[in-house]
Amino acid sequence: MRVFVTGATGWIGSHTVDELLAAGHQVLGLARTDAAEASLQAKGAQALRGDLDDLAALRRGTEGADAVVHLANKHDWADPAESNRAERAAVETLADALTGSDRPFVFASGLAALAQGRPSTESDPSPFSGPDAPRGGAESLAFEYAARGVRSIAARFSPTVHGTGDHGFIALLVATARRTGVAAYVGDGTSAWSAVHVHDAARLVRLGLEQAPAGTRLHVVAEESVTSREIAEAIGGYLNLPVKPVAPEDAVDHFGFLGRFFATDMAASSAVTRATFDWNPTGPTLAEDLAAGAYAGAGLS
Q1: From which residue to which does any coiled coil extend (predicted)?
Q2: How far apart are CA 48 and CA 31, in angstroms?
Q3: 3-state secondary structure (DSSP) of residue 108
């Protein structure tokens, strides 16, 4: 297949491009810069210049593709409303261009607020709908297009997709520990995240693209539940720092914006995903990645 990928040079996107190329697919990646274009071309992919706000470029990339993988996101934590607006506009543009074609449309989604008091499952619908919702209600919007001939597939990524080179939430937690001299967790440390290694995540995106029917929710989850205390202990062990709790009311002061997320339960099961797509994660665990130095550079620049 010829696959159009947004976010093609980002953390998950770059590994997904590698996975798709290795499986024999052709890739057209959205590239914002000269460096991004050169990176894609060096891998044997093609590049389309544009960004998430360039809706005409999104349409052009989709019109010439057999499938679309949408992984780009502004992730503007200072202006979440702008991130939500851009995400909804991008999903609507891509899905409109795919309407009536039955071509696969894999898009990034998340695991927040899907269940209360238990790990979320693939049967849990997204509670977010409408342009003012988190991520612009993009998962619900994309699934509306399933009835219009779009093979919409949600890739619900774990809050940490870890590995060497990751600059996401775990890198920020490591940087905070270096800065403050303590590896901290929130409250009693029982809030939990799911986790997955980036190579396993990329492989599941490819499997979903190739096999999943419309309306599928892929849970990109290798470890169902890693508590915030376990994460702090792994960081503390690697950095040789004390591990201590932070009161919930002090979490934002200590961690910045990440304090709200670190105290939030985002545990999830991937049992249905594994059984349906014969996906068996083989990458290191989060604790193993931390111990091996995958985040050695976090907080040092």
Answers
A1: none
A2: 6
A3: strand
Buried-state track 97-132, b at ≥16 Cβ within 10 A, e below 16: bbeebebbbbbbbbbbebbeeebbbbebebebeeee
Helices (H), the chain: 11-22, 34-43, 55-63, 80-98, 138-144, 169-180, 198-211, 228-239, 251-255, 258-262, 271-277, 286-291
Contacts of 164 (CB under 8 A, 6+ apart): 289, 294
- 104 contact partners, CB below 8 Å, separation of at least 6: 67, 68, 151, 153, 208, 209, 210, 212
Which parts of the chain have pLDDT scores under 50? none
Bridge partner residues of 195 (DSSP):
160, 223
According to the model, what pLDDT value does residue 78 have? 85
Torsion of CA 278, 282, 288, 292, to 10 degrees: -150
In tens, the pLDDT along 31-80 reads 999 999 999 999 999 999 999 999 999 999 999 899 999 999 998 888 99
201 assigned to some structural domain: yes
Are residues 131 and 235 both part of a single domain? no
Residues 235 and 95 in one domain: no
* pLDDT of 77: 82
Asked if residue 23 and residue 137 are part of one domain, the reply reads yes
234 and 178 in contact (C-beta within 8 Å)?
no
Kindly list the distances between the CA atom of residue 224 and the CA atoms of 270, 283, 297, in Å, as whole numbers in the listed order: 7, 14, 27
Give yes or no: residues 191 and 201 share one domain: no
Please indicate, yes or no, whether residues 142 and 188 belong to a single structural domain of this protein.
Answer: no
How many folded domains does the chain comprise?
2
CA distance 32 to 295: 26
Q: What per-residue confidence (pLDDT) applies to 301?
A: 72
Yes or no: say if 215 and 152 are a contact pair by the CB < 8 Å rule. yes
Q: Which domain does 47 fall in, by range? A: 2-158+197-221
Structure tokens at 111: 């695991």
